[in-house]
Amino acid sequence: MTASSMIDFTNTEIAFRRLTDTDLIRAYSLFKMLAHQTLVKVGTKAIAIGMKLRLPVGFLVEQTIYKHFCGGDSIDSSQSTIESLAREKVSTILDYSVEGKDDESAIDATCAEIKRTIDKARTTKSISFCVFKPTGIARVSILEKVSSGATLNKTDAAEFERARARFEDLCREAARHNIRIFIDAEDSWYQKAIDDMALDMMRKYNREKPLVHTTLQMYRHDRLAYLKEIATTARKENFCLGIKLVRGAYMEKERERASAKGYPSPIQPDKECTDRDYDAALTFMMDNVDLFSICAGSHNEASNLHLVRLIEKAVASGKILEKDVSSRVHFSQLLGMSDHLSFNLAHAGFAVSKYVPYGPVREVLPYLTRRAEENTSIRGQTGREMSLIQRELGRRHQRP
Questions:
Q1: Greatest extent of the chain over all pairs of C-alpha atoms, in Å
Q2: Model confidence over 135-151: pLDDT tens digits?
Q3: Cα separation of 265 and 259, whole Å?
């Protein structure tokens, strides 16, 4: 592994060498469009309406934002992306990005598809984790009822038991094949049910090694305390914790709902507090690295460098052997974003993955909408992407 002082996130040759000039120009045009907040808001709403009305807007989505942020419409069609990333020593997290279904037959179909990603990981070394979104395998309404502590009638109790069974089925299948699996985080008002099930799965399947991973969104002001709470539980009960740490993806919706319903917002007061808790969580986990498997899902340069320095410190102090770092500490970014982080970290010898969403265009539209909104809301995100692309195109075509 390269020392933190030697990692250069401005090295665009490494960041973009898997992409052609045409790829880069297409990406630049897309980020330029995403830089316009009003255009994104109007455009995403118009596309959603067009899809509902069965208007021919799918091709437009497929050739722009879908092509940039998704691997394909199936596991097989994502294979070229998996191979392209693997050539740069970056692994894949196949993410079947279908969510929020209300029909149980559709939910069962989603669960079956996630099992296929586990089977794919079993035979593909470059797939580092599997993942599922709880709202893909359980209705939001039942998760909300359970999270609120409401008394369930027989129908609701039976539905929740089916959701629990799917939850465990996926974790058990992954553990059976020695495959690590992420449980994604959701909106705060139904996250408690997910937290409780995730903790139960870690109790059950993380006795010998951390296979099941829950996700903490650090834009919530209570997550650092929750991390320390479950760490105490894991120490006491002798199991490992798998933690995927992210900043979060539902901030505006969370604040709007809290305001509308008159309860305190669960969201941090500002970005600085989110950054502080994110880095504090990394520090806490690396100080207790024997207890954790850590995945830092971050597009923030400072947080990634912070983790690199924490790894160096832990290796120097003997808290972790250098040969064990890649199995315990992982960096991850989304496909189509922050290539300067992913590929330069991988080049430096760290374990890095890309989230590779896949699924039919119509089904992954909610995911794509969040990516579009994220790029307009994260300070400097689109400008940074555009600047790096310009720099690489300039480097490739500078005169001798």
A1: 75
A2: 999 999 999 999 999 99
A3: 7
List Cα–Cα distances, 233 to 237, 238, 245, in angstroms: 6, 8, 19
Mean pLDDT of 62-76: 87
Q: Is 305 exposed, middle or buried (0-12, 13-18, 19+ CB in 10 A)?
A: middle
What does the DSSP assignment read for 86-155? HHTT-EEEEEE-------HHHHHHHHHHHHHHHHHHHH-TTEEEEEE-HHHHS-HHHHHHHHHTPPP-HH
CA torsion, ordered 178, 170, 350, 231, to nearest 10 deg: -90
Strand partners, 129: 93
Sequence length of the chain is: 400
- Amino acid at site 236: K
Q: Which of 298, 332, 373, 330 is nearest to 95 (CA)?
A: 332
Q: What is the pLDDT of residue 329?
A: 98
| Gap between the Cα atoms of 285 and 340, Å rounded | 25
Which parts of the chain fold into alpha helices (H)?
A: 12-16, 21-34, 37-52, 58-61, 67-69, 79-87, 104-123, 134-137, 140-148, 154-176, 191-205, 223-237, 251-261, 271-287, 301-317, 325-328, 339-347, 365-377, 381-396
Level-2 CATH architecture, domain 71-362: Alpha-Beta Barrel (3.20)
Give the orientation angle of helix 140-148 with respect to helix 191-205, to 10 degrees: 90
Each residue's pLDDT tens digit, 249-279: 778 889 999 999 999 999 999 999 999 999 9
Mean pLDDT of 91-97: 94
Burial string for 314-353 (b: 16+ CB within 10 Å, else e) reads bbeeeebeeeebeebbbbbbbbbbbbbbbbbbbbbebbbb
Question: CA 263 to CA 259: how far, in whole Å?
Answer: 7
- CA gap 233, 373 in Å, rounded: 37
CA dihedral over 134, 137, 139, 145, signed as positive or negative: negative
Could you identify the residue written with the tokens 């109007």?
42
Residue 99 has pLDDT above 90, yes or no: no
Distance CA 121, CA 109 (A): 19
Instruction: Report pLDDT for 370.
Output: 65
- The answer to whether 97 and 131 are in contact (CB under 8 A) is no
